[in-house]
Design a protein that fits this description.
The protein has 124 residues and is of the alpha/beta class. It has 5 helices and 5 strands; from the N terminus they run βαβαβαβαβα. Helix 3 (61-71) links the parallel strand 3 and strand 4. It starts with a strand and ends with a helix.
Length: 124
């Protein structure tokens, strides 16, 4: 099952690596370096899933998620961070269509989570 995924991360190597990993699985991948660019990408070509880093300059991934929830409540978001997991995990647990993943993560487990999240969103 393919789909379009938006990867949001201010760290270029991480964003490019994630995009490359997702493309190997047949996904179409959009990229954004910050929240404003992410919203523009969503407006232009609404993806099936957003994967966003939490810690970014300016607007955080959690603030981006809140904005996405207001405008596109059905759009699933996977939040990723290498920092403390307690706050983001709690936020994700009480926010619809939101999953938190602690970095580092195994590529195969992450890809399985992406596939499962897309399947749940489309009702497959």
């Amino acid at each position: 099952m393919a789909g379009t995924i938006l990867v949001v991360d201010d760290d270029d190597p991480v964003r490019v690596m994630l995009a490359r990993l997702l493309r190997t699985q047949g996904y179409s991948v959009l990229q954004a370096a910050h929240a404003n660019e992410a919203r523009a990408q969503i407006d232009a070509q609404k993806p099936d899933l957003v994967i966003s880093d939490i810690v970014m300059p300016g607007e955080s991934g959690i603030e981006l998620r809140r904005n996405i929830l207001e405008r596109w409540p059905e759009l699933p978001v996977i939040l990723i961070s290498g920092y403390s997991a307690e706050g983001p995990a709690e936020f994700a647990a009480r926010t619809p269509n939101t999953i938190f993943v602690q970095k580092p993560f195994a590529a195969d487990q992450f890809l399985a989570l992406v596939e499962q999240t897309l399947s749940s969103a489309t009702g497959d």
